[in-house]
Structure formats: C-alpha cells, structure tokens
Specification:
Helix content: 10-25%
Distance between the termini: 74 Å
Order of helices and strands: HEHEEEEEEEEEE
Oligomer: single chain
Largest sheet: 11 strands, antiparallel
Strand content: 35-45%
Shape: globular
Structural class: alpha+beta
C-alpha cells in the first residue's frame, strides 16, 4: 500500500505501534494472573510411628476404616477441623501397609453426589479433584482443604492404592456403595462433633 501523504504514513505507523503494544500488554497481564493462582488444597505425606498414628486417630473428630481388597481393614481415614477454618483429611495405614497413591473427591450434596463417574456409575478415580503419588514406606498422607464457606455435612470418596504383604491392593474409606458394579465406596461426613474441638 502506497501513502501519498507523509502524515498518513506516519499516522498508520503510530496506530500499528499502539495496537502492537496493547496486544503485548494484554498477553503479559494474562500470564501474570495465571501465575498468581493459589491452590485450594495442600498435600503432605510422611512416615509416622504406629503409636503416634494411633493417638491421632483417637483425637480425630471423624473417622472411617480404610478397606483394601473389599474386606480387610488396613488403616483409617480421619478428618479434623483446623483453627483457620480449613480441614484436614488424613489417610493412616496400619503396620505392614503403605500408601502408593491417594485420590480424594468431594460432593456438597449427598443425595445426588457429584463425584466423577462413568455412565454405569463406577467412579473415575483419575478424575478426582485431589490426588498424589507417594514414595515407598509412606504410611500417612494429609489433604488440607481450604474453602470460603465450610459445610459441616458433605460426602467424600477417599481412594488409595496400598502396598501390603501380598502386593498392591485398591482401598476405599468405608461407606456407601457407588451405583456401579465394583465395590467402590463414598462416605457421608457429618462433622458437628468437630464443634467441640475447635
């Protein structure tokens, strides 16, 4: 394109420069906002002595058995409410068992749970909102959940891959069955008992 008027050519160059700068600024702003996203949870895993784990289980305001292979109790899943309004769900395994993977999903509605499931009602563990892999020998994993408004009643599905005397097993916190054909379970958590401890 040829410009007969030198002022028209200068104006076009200035306009192009302004548009380029504005586009660059928008991109940088978008990138900055992505970097400042704060996680809604934290995960910690560690090796705990059996005596310490038993003491923590006794003090927890909510507790369910962790079941492996459909019928063997291999630990506990407990919940405690923290002073800052967050709450911590902890997997503990008994001696001889360790946690290889943990997966956790939450549903505010227990009558119509919102867990990720297949068309046949089996849970999609790989789609659970919270998940972590763990090193060999880990027997305690904590998920601390931060939320704007805490509900004392909700449902959760706590799944784990555990290592025991006979190798790896699938484990679930003991509760109600999913609609699918496997033995997966979810738990109705009612935490008003935690009020006495906060």
């Amino acid at each position: 394109m040829k410009f007969k008027n030198p002022f028209t050519k200068a104006g076009a160059l200035i306009l192009t420069s302004i548009l380029f700068i504005n586009c660059s600024d928008d991109t940088e702003t978008l990138n900055e906002s992505d970097d400042t996203v704060v996680a809604a949870y934290t995960v910690a895993d560690f090796k705990a002595s059996l005596s310490n784990a038993e003491e923590e289980q006794d003090e927890a305001c909510f507790s369910r058995n962790l079941i492996a292979g459909q019928n063997e109790v291999v630990g506990q899943v407990t919940i405690d409410v923290n002073q800052d309004g967050s709450w911590t769900l902890t997997y503990h395994t008994l001696e001889g068992w360790s946690l290889q993977e943990t997966h956790l999903s939450l549903s505010p509605d227990c009558e119509n749970p919102t867990f990720p499931v297949t068309k046949t009602g089996n849970p999609k563990v790989g789609k659970f909102e919270y998940a972590a892999s763990h090193e060999n020998g880990i027997d305690t994993v904590e998920y601390t959940i931060y939320q704007d408004s805490f509900s004392w009643e909700f449902c959760f599905a706590a799944h784990a891959v555990v290592e025991g005397p006979k190798g790896e097993e699938t484990a679930w916190a003991e509760g109600e069955s999913f609609d699918g054909k496997n033995w997966a379970m979810y738990v109705h958590a009612f935490l008003l008992g935690c009020l006495q401890q906060t």
